[in-house]
Amino acid sequence: MSAHAVAILVALLAAAPAGGQPGAAPTGAPAAPPPVTVRAWAEPDTVTVGQRFRYLIEVAAAADTEVVLAQPTERLGSFDIVDFGDQPLAERDGRRVVTRWYRIVGWSPGHQLIPSPPVRYRVPGEALAEAPRDDVGVTVASLVDAAGPSPELRDVKGPEPFPLDWRPFQVAGGAAALAAALAVTLWALRRRRGGVPPAPPRPAHELAAAALDELRRRRLPDAGAWEAYYVALSAIVRGYLEHRFGLRAPEMTTEEFLQATARGGALERVHRSLLGEFLGESDLVKFARHVPSLGEAERAWTAARRFVDETADRLGEGRRAAG
Question: Which of 146, 173, 191 is the last residue of a domain?
Answer without folding.
Answer: 146
